[in-house]
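B., you asked whether I could sanity-check this one before it goes into the benchmark set. Here's the sequence:
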Amino acid sequence: MFGKRKERIAVAEQGVAGTEIEYESARIQIVELVKLSYWAARGAEENCTLLKATVDNFQKKVDYHAAQLSVGAISEQDFLRVRLESDRLKVSLNFANIESARARAALTKAMGQTRLLNVTLTEPLDASAAIEPVGIDRVLAQRSEIKAARAALDEAQAKARLQVVAARSDLSLFAGFKRTQLPDTVTGVNTAIAGVQIALPLVNRNQGNRDAADAEVRRQQQLLAAAEASVRADYLGALQEYEMRRMQFAETLVPLRDSAIQISQIAADAYAAGGTDLLRLLDAERSRRKQKCHWLNEPLNTVRASRGWKQPKE
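And here's what the prediction gave me:
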C-alpha cells in the first residue's frame, strides 16, 4: 500500500530504459566505426590507383631515357637517376598496397566478418557538395551520451521517489475465520476476525537514504549539463573544422593540384626540348605527386570533420 509497489516498478522500468540506451549507443558506435573504416579503405584504395597510374606513366619516361642512353644522347648518370626515381615510386606503391590491405582488413573486422571480403568500394571521393549542418537541439536529441545521461537522471529521480514512499510505514489488512473448541463440550464457536497491521516505529522517516537519493539526483543533473556542454563544444568544433577544410580543399588544394600538373607538363616539354635539366623535371614530378596525395586525403578529412570523427590511431 501507499504506492511502494508502483515506485519499485518505476525504478525497474528506468533501469530497463537505461540498458536499452546503452545498447543503442553501442550500435551507433559500431555503425560509426564501420563508416570510418570504409572511408579509410576507400582512400587507401584510391591512393593505390593513383600511384599505379603514376608508376605506369613514369615507366614511359624510363623507356624514353633508356632509348636516349642507347644512342648516347644522355649520360648514364641521368638514366640511373630516372630509374632510381622509378624504383622509389614502385616501393611507394608496394607500401600503399600494404596499407590498403590493412584498411580492408580493418573494415572486415569492423563489419564482424570472419573472412576477408572481396568487394569493390564505389563511393566517390568528392567534397564539392556542401553538407547542411543540423541544429544543436537536434544534435542534443540524437547523441547517445545525452540519452544515457538523461536516462540516468530519470532513474535517479525514480529512486528518490521510492525512498520518499519507503519512509511510510507498511500497512496491511487481514481478515479470516477462526473456530474455537470450547472446553468440556463437543461443540465449537465460529469467530470472524479482521485487523490492521502497521510497522513500527512510526517516526522512522528514512532520512539518510532520502538525502543520498537527492544527492544522486543533483549529481546526475550536473553530469547531464556537462555532457550537453561537451556535445555543444564538439559540434561547434567539428562544424568549424569542416568549413575550414572544405574551403581549403576548394580554394587552395584544387588550384595547387592544377598548378602542379601544369608545371610538371611544362618541365617535361622543356626537358624534351633541352631547355632544363633532369633534376628540375624530377622535382616537378615529385611536386605533382605530392599535390595529388593532398588532394586525395583532404576529402576524407572533410568527411570525417562533418561527422565529428577523429583520425584513427595506428
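One thing to flag: The longest helix spans residues 4-70. Otherwise nothing jumped out at me.
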